[in-house]
Specification:
With 262 residues, the protein is an alpha/beta fold. The chain has a single domain (9-258), classed as NAD(P)-binding Rossmann-like Domain (Rossmann fold, 3-Layer(aba) Sandwich), CATH 3.40.50.720. The protein is built from eight helices and nine strands. It has helices spanning 18-29, 42-53, 70-83, 107-133, 155-175, 199-206, 217-228, 250-258, and strands at residues 9-13, 34-39, 59-64, 89-92, 138-143, 180-187, 190-191, 215-216, 239-242. The strands form two sheets. A seven-stranded parallel sheet has the order 3-2-1-4-5-6-9, sandwiched between helices. Strands 7-8 form a two-stranded parallel ribbon. The chain binds 1,4-dihydronicotinamide adenine dinucleotide (NAI). 1,4-dihydronicotinamide adenine dinucleotide binds next to helix 1. 1,4-dihydronicotinamide adenine dinucleotide binds at residues 13-14, 16-20, 39-41, 65-68, 93-96, 116, 143, 145, 187, 189-190, 192-195.
Length: 262
């Protein structure tokens, strides 16, 4: 039986937990040939590989890679070029947050978040390009956020996610003629280890979205898989929002309810 990703080779960064792990699982379920899982946490990555293997027969390759390091990207691509002859899907998913306002955010905090979330995506697209070109029909999915669409108190995170949204459009423009589509994903609050420390904020925000709940990693992975597959063959340079309706005016519902106007 064929799947949506039949015959494809896919790479996911930050694949050892949360949304990246869910992407890898979904790719295997949709019959990708090879799924390459990378992360800066090798121990967790090996555990994640065992989980992913249970979902199908794809070849799973794991590799410890810090997405902020140009040298590590170079070594990684050299190594991969010996194992695969093309790359069909790149998911730039690795990300970190420092929930600090302008007044609290140090330069060190700023540089860390920008380097992982923004420079990491730049390097990912730059160094995977040669292998993606060999596909002739490739798709890049960059993980932004609803904070790449609106303002948010975490200044460095917000800046990095707007940058991902912008870079996605520049890359879509440049790579279209190379047979590569590039789109960004904008999740709202999703239940992953990323959000363990902000459960109160999530609870409150649930009252502001149309579905009344946070999202699950597999719900993001389904959309990532759609963008990775040929089903989205005419989509490039665009933004896919998965936020349960949070950015579509949910705050007005909460306010109206508080004032008994709803
Ligand atoms: P997570 O914390 O569960 O996973 C993040 C992954 O990135 C981990 O595998 C971690 O090892 C990896 N990583 C961090 N720094 C790295 C580095 N320097 N090099 C390589 N890998 C590195 O987070 P989650 O929730 O799965 O987030 C995935 C992406 O989705 C991130 O880009 C995040 O900003 C974005 N996102 C998450 C939302 C959420 O509510 N969970 C909402 C909107 C966007």
């Amino acid at each position: 039986m064929s799947g949506k990703l039949n015959g494809k080779t896919a790479l996911v960064t930050g694949a050892c937990n949360g949304i990246g792990l869910a992407d890898a699982i979904e790719f295997v379920k949709e019959k990708a040939d090879t799924v390459i899982m990378v992360s800066d946490n090798n121990e967790r990555l090996l555990e994640a590989k065992e989980t992913v293997k249970q979902y199908g027969n794809a070849e799973i390759i794991t590799y410890r890679l810090d997405v902020t390091s140009e040298n590590e990207w170079k070594d990684f691509i050299d190594e991969m070029s010996k194992k695969i002859n093309k790359l069909d899907v790149l998911v730039n998913n690795a990300g970190v947050n420092k929930r600090a306002t302008f007044q609290e955010c140090t330069l060190e905090d700023w540089n860390h978040v920008i380097t992982v979330n923004q420079t990491g995506v730049f390097l990912g697209m730059k160094y995977c390009l040669a292998l993606l070109k060999k596909s002739g029909n490739a798709s890049i999915i960059n993980m932004s956020s609803i904070t790449g669409l609106t303002g948010y108190f975490a200044v460095a995170y917000t800046a990095s996610k707007w940058a991902v949204r912008g870079m996605t459009k520049s890359a879509a423009m440049e790579f279209g003629e190379l047979g590569i589509r590039v789109n960004s994903i904008h999740p709202g609050f999703i239940n992953t280890p990323f959000n363990e420390s902000i459960q109160d904020l999530i609870k409150l925000s649930n009252g502001m979205n149309s579905l009344g709940r946070a999202g699950e990693a597999f719900e993001i992975a389904k959309a990532v898989t759609f963008l990775a597959s040929d089903d989205s063959s005419y989509m490039t340079g665009t933004e896919v929002i998965l936020d349960g309706g949070l950015t579509s005016g949910g705050q007005f519902k909460l306010l109206a309810k508080q004032f008994n106007n709803y």
